[in-house]
What does this fold into?
Amino acid sequence: DTEVTQTPKHLVMGMTNKKSLKCEQHMGHRAMYWYKQKAKKPPELMFVYSYEKLSINESVPSRFSPECPNSSLLNLHLHALQPEDSALYLCASSQGGSPSMYFGPGTRLTVT
Amino acid sequence: GQNIDQPTEMTATEGAIVQINCTYQTSGFNGLFWYQQHAGEAPTFLSYNVLDGLEEKGRFSSFLSRSKGYSYLLLKELQMKDSASYLCAVTDSNYQLIWGAGTKLIIKP
It folds into this structure.
């Protein structure tokens, strides 16, 4: 199983809403990532979890809050987002010692 | 600073060969990746080079020259489904992935 799953696929939320994005992998990967991608731009790294501990936070606003409940799951909690936060949010995972990074299908987020 | 350059857009004909170039200047080097991304979809892994030379995988090949800070992705026997963006990315000395802006490849019949 070389799959990373993400839910939901699409999300529309108002600026006062609270929502969560979910990501799951069962490849035994110990590093998991959140990326944000705007149209026609490369992915931008937001957070990295390594062995369930937050190892990198790329100066992301606090309205984005990551959580790693266990080695297979990664959540991104969203609160009080702005319209400019509308983007494709990608989850990825990788195994230490292996260069391959596997991406989930992404969640297309629209903030109204 | 860290910089990865690749052409913004390329056009090629179905059945032909196309080479997408990537040059990089990064603080350290721990490997170069090529990803394919169709519009609205997640990137998919194509290749990884850490040693100089050519890696061949079916219709796709990737080449690396570390001394020149240069890589290319070679796509043979182009098919319409190869129309996508191709992203070059380098892992730096901190094992962080630095992404190029991507090359949009348009395949014409």
Notes: The CA atoms of residues 13 and 75 of chain A lie 17 Å apart.
